[in-house]
Amino acid sequence: MSVKGIEGKVIVITGASSGLGETSAHELTKAGAKVVVGARRVDKLRALVKEFGLPEESAVEVDVSKQEQVENLIQTALKLYGKIDVLMNNAGVATFSPIEAGDVDAWDRMIDTNVKGVLYGVNAVLPHFKERKSGQIINTCSVVGHSVMRNGVVYSSTKFAIRAISEGLRQELKPHNIRVLNISPGPTESEGLRVAFGEASMPTAPSTAFSDAVIYAVSQPENVDINEITFRPTALD
Ligand SMILES: NC(=O)c1ccc[n+]([C@@H]2O[C@H](COP(=O)([O-])OP(=O)(O)OC[C@H]3O[C@@H](n4cnc5c(N)ncnc54)[C@H](OP(=O)(O)O)[C@@H]3O)[C@@H](O)[C@H]2O)c1
């Protein structure tokens, strides 16, 4: 069922091959958006856009830690639709280990994906948003971007950085009529969560809690800028 304020919008989503990004791609499409989806596993993306009845070109292979590939994602969306209304910087990786384990490769991967990937996305879409004097940036933060999680020093650091980036963008981009949402999920059902925590059972929110929050923010009229949404499973502190 189409949703007022979503219908006809072009929404670029990074990290749409699984988890929160994939659910958002589904729910936003149902609500009437045209999504352009990016991730490294392009086969999964191709299957997704086929299911949505969207052009094959809406599935874009991208490693967000590579600036030129993020640029290509944005340019592909512009070539397809001539405009972008929303950029969802959602791709992210999480590895938890004590700092003294010195898992430097994982630190690099998290910083490159979770922080640089978001900055590259912003940089690539900004000229278009400024020209249109319109646009919305949605950054996926985390509750651990508000308080540090044990054994998650680097992951938490990347999400603290996202909060700083979102707030800084909100301030700087106001004159261009660009809206910025920082969304902070607690544990939410996804492939990524299962990989990070294995069989350890913990309460989780459904991934639609995330997409519902996105739909709420995107469907607001242009003069309403939703800046912060935090949610967590009811059963967790
Ligand atoms: N689920 C939770 O509990 C939770 C809580 C708080 C915040 N988050 C955040 O939510 C976001 C989505 O996570 P998720 O839980 O949905 O995990 P997920 O199921 O693992 O999804 C992560 C997505 O990011 C993509 N990705 C990873 N590295 C990438 C790269 N270098 N370039 C492009 N795409 C990349 C993955 O696709 P490919 O592997 O195909 O590239 C996948 O589509 C992340 O930013 C995560 O930090 C999740």
TrEMBL record:
One of its GO terms (molecular function) is oxidoreductase activity, acting on the CH-OH group of donors, NAD or NADP as acceptor. It comes from Wickerhamiella sorbophila. Belongs to the short-chain dehydrogenases/reductases (SDR) family. This is Oxidoreductase. Keywords: NADP, Oxidoreductase. SUPFAM superfamilies: NAD(P)-binding Rossmann-fold domains (SSF51735). It comes from the Eukaryota. Pfam families: adh_short (PF00106).
